[in-house]
Amino acid sequence: MNKGGAQQEGHSSKQVENIVLVGRTGNGKSATGNSLIGKRVFVSKAHASGVTMKCQTHEAVTKDGHRINVIDTPGLFDIALSAEFISKEIVRCLTLAEGGIHAVILVLSARTRMTQEEESTLSTLQALFGSQILAYVIVVFTGGDVLEENNETLEEYLGRDCPAFIREVIKLSGNRMVLFDNRTHDEGKKAEQVHKLLSLVDKIQKTHHGEAYTDDMYHEIKAEQHKLLKKHEELQSKNHPPDLVSLMKDKLQASYQEKMDQMSSTMGKKLKIALEEQDNMPSALSATVGFQPDGMPTVSLAVPIMSRRGGGCSIL
Question: How does residue 185 score in pLDDT terms, banded at 50, 70 and 90?
Fold first, then answer.
């Protein structure tokens, strides 16, 4: 995988920062996107029976000068969604991230229990975005109002028997994390939490000398987009009858879509392998039978040390 992209020259250049939202449906992913944009543009689960099933994108310029392009994705850890569907949408997500990804926001909830599916967070992110994506990840915990009601800080919350896989994600993402309250009507609090998050985006950019994250898949997608655009331009430069032009454009689009589907298939296979490896992790007792010098049998039980499924980091 490669890491690189367009050089950013600061906010004065008005270059867009692509911020990708990932996480389980119901964690407040779309609501966090709305908080970043400053108005309701993404439909959240709390306001509709449906959920994000397609990548959606909205741009905004924040009060402190960030020009952001927020990309909301389908729930990555939803067992109802197939690996093929998720992969297809992530490929679409990459087509929307012109210039690369500047930050991936992993949205977790302080309001609900961590799920079994979320234990595959690390392998899922790396399968979809490449092995180095964690260098661009920021963890957002929603449900800040719940912690406030309990007079508890984010650090205190995480100190209460937090699952090992969450601690590992936070560690590998450079301890970049923010607590969000998407339900607050306090304009000052809204501005402060968005400022904290975007400050972490700035920190990522400074660490990587202004380079957005890209990988081999991203470069393949952009190469195919460039080829399609060039062929369209060549077609327009010729004096073909309108019907023939329309037919040839359809063929070009079909060929392009076939390439995108092939990339989605490749990514889907990687995701399936990652999820299968997670499922095959030992989760039961294993016994070893031996014998003492006097011939008496002995049994040794091995208990795998894993994060507690469906527990920890939760407010009940």
Answer: very high
Q: Which residues pair with 7 in a beta bridge?
A: 211
Average pLDDT, stretch 79-89? 81
Across-strand partners of 60?
A: 68
Q: Look at the alpha carbons of 171, 176, 177, 182 in this order and tell me if their dihedral is positive or negative.
A: negative
Match 């060929």 to its residue by tokens: 255
DSSP designation for 10: -
Residue 109 gets which letter from DSSP?
Answer: E
Six-digit token pair at 316? 């009940």
Residue 12, Cβ neighbours under 10 Å: how many? 7
Strand runs labelled E in the chain: 17-23, 56-61, 67-72, 103-109, 137-142, 177-180, 286-291, 297-302
Query: What is the mean pLDDT of the segment spanning 21-28?
Result: 88
**Tell me, what amino acid is at 298?**
T
Share of the chain above pLDDT 90, in %: 43
